[in-house]
Amino acid sequence: xxxxxxxxxxxxxxxxxxxxxxxxxxxxxxxxxxxxxxxxxxxxxxxxxxxxxxxxxxxxxxxxxxxxxxxxxxxxxxxxxxxxxx
Length: 86
Fold this sequence. Notes:
The chain has a domain at 26-85. The longest helix has 29 residues, at 57-85. It has helices at residues 3-19, 26-47, 51-54, 57-85. By secondary structure, it is an all-alpha fold. Helix 2 runs antiparallel to helix 4. 84% of the residues lie in helices and 0% in strands. The protein is built from four helices and no strands. The protein is globular and about 45 Å long.
């Protein structure tokens, strides 16, 4: 495990302590899908379509990476959710 993964595990541990550990349901997956979709669509509309972002390569690149990562998360949640339903 590398330093980045260690940091992520530590952040995950903090979240579990802060918010508690609960058994997730289909509703939780749906809620997470909805919020992930809302966020990546907001990045697309509100950030990537903003002149301060799209006229600056470095800003646009970061906004695009954020969009891509959220879209990747959305697809992962959806894929796992569909496996659980079958």
